[in-house]
Design brief:
The chain is α+β, with helices and mostly antiparallel strands. It folds into 2 domains: 5-99 and 326-373, no CATH class; 104-309. Helix content is 39%, strand content 20%. It has helices spanning 29-41, 47-56, 58-61, 74-83, 86-100, 154-164, 181-189, 203-218, 293-303, 305-316, 330-347, 355-364, 366-373; strands at residues 108-115, 130-136, 141-148, 171-174, 193-198, 227-235, 238-247, 264-274, 277-287. A 9-stranded mixed β-sheet has the order 3-2-1-4-5-9-8-7-6, with helices on both faces. α1 crosses α2 (47-56), α1 (29-41) packs across α11 (330-347) and α4 (74-83) crosses α11 (330-347). The model has no long low-confidence stretch (mean pLDDT 87).
């Protein structure tokens, strides 16, 4: 081993406030964070597993950590993460992500929420945590996250998340919950563009656009300037045809001036044939981008990368939904650790393995774990 993990990620967390005020500190906070992160990368999902991992790797950790009193007990890990300020932890996370991230121009940044199902605490009358995350779909990076207590609070949480992110030149995509005038304004103030899913929660605004675009399709967009693209996909007996129309003809729309930067309307028609059964679905979107059907279709398809690349991986490969950590700030802080670990694991391009097997490989091979920790060290 010729390099220290200190050169990569851990120095971005050196200013993290230590929550152990006026108490004897037998363990350096830097050591605590490094052990916990390495353990989570390698498959540890609770404090007992993190302690066991630390003890198994103690000789290796001593090559770059002080460890004045050895490896912490699981109770000590738990107490520190219960007390650790999650907002300060997220600020450190953002600082690291900014160093790791390449140019985001034209990057599709998907924003979506996920409930951590087992973080509820009935005895304490505490609801499960709902985490809203921003996902850079091409770079496959979680750019940031913010906690809400309920899914309905995404509307207020999304602007707070946007405030924290550097989004100049990005295309921000959000589902219908985030299709709000103030969210559109917040995106434009970050010098980014938006593509927002439009559904019935927007009432008359939605109904006007739906009627206009349905009529336009029926008339084959006669006298309406537009762009159009069609794609066909099929496998395992399924054929899906997607037709995308986009137009900048919005002069007739009564509330257009209330939506900052609104420029184009989009309708997508999906025709799915499975065996002998064919179904049709139409979905609506609004955007600040020009009416380029191909570019808009790409942004909309990319949005669902947050489900496969982030939410699904956290559930299946990192067991996040099964985690029962509930006390104090620990669930929020453990979620940040999961996001850090996932970002690091996804940066590796040398191993042709899924995330679950990369975690196993890192646990078995110290050199590979060091390689994972060094991701982004050159930034």
């Amino acid at each position: 081993m010729t390099k220290s993990p200190e050169l990569s990620i851990t120095h971005h967390f050196k200013n993290l406030p230590d929550p152990r005020v006026n108490r004897t500190r037998f363990h350096h906070l830097h050591d605590v964070m490094a052990i916990a992160l390495c353990a989570v990368i390698c498959g540890a999902d609770d404090w007992a597993a993190i302690e066991r991992f630390g003890k198994a790797k103690q000789e290796w950790f001593r090559t770059f950590l002080a460890l004045p009193n050895g490896i912490l007990t699981h109770d000590t890990f738990g107490r520190i993460f219960v007390a650790l300020d999650p907002e300060a932890f997220k600020i450190c996370f953002l600082d690291w992500v900014k160093a790791l991230t390449k140019d985001l121009t034209d990057e599709v940044v998907a924003i979506d929420g996920k409930t951590l199902r087992h973080t509820f605490d009935t005895a304490a009358d505490k609801a499960a945590i709902h985490m809203v995350s921003a996902w850079a779909t091409a770079q496959r990076l979680c750019l940031g996250q913010i906690k809400t207590e309920e899914k309905s609070n995404e509307i207020t949480a999304i602007p707070k998340l946007l405030e924290r992110l550097a989004l100049k030149g990005c295309i921000v995509t959000i589902d219908a919950m985030g299709c709000q005038k103030e969210i559109a304004r917040a995106i434009r103030e970050k010098e980014a563009d938006f593509v927002l899913s439009l559904k019935g929660n927007q009432g008359h605004f939605h109904d006007e656009i739906k009627d206009f675009l349905n009529d336009a399709i029926d008339s084959q967009f006669k006298d309406i300037a537009h762009s159009f693209i069609q794609t066909v996909d099929g496998d395992h007996g399924r054929i899906e045809v997607r037709r995308v129309w986009a137009t900048e003809e919005i002069g007739w729309l009564h509330d257009r001036d209330k939506w900052p930067g609104l420029r184009s309307l989009i309708i997508i028609e999906s025709e799915r044939t499975i065996q002998d059964k064919t179904t049709y679905e139409r979905r609506l979107y609004i955007s600040s981008l020009p009416a380029d059907a191909a570019k808009l279709a790409h942004a909309i398809r990319s949005h669902w990368g947050i489900e496969n690349g982030l939410h699904w991986v956290l559930d299946v490969a990192m067991n996040q939904d099964q985690n029962r950590t509930r006390k104090g700030n620990a669930p929020d802080n453990l979620a940040v650790l999961h996001h850090i670990a996932l970002n690091l694991l996804k940066q590796d391009t040398t191993a042709k393995l899924g995330i679950k097997n990369r975690r196993l490989a890192a646990g078995w091979d110290n050199d590979y774990l060091l390689h994972i920790l060094m991701a982004g060290a050159g930034n």
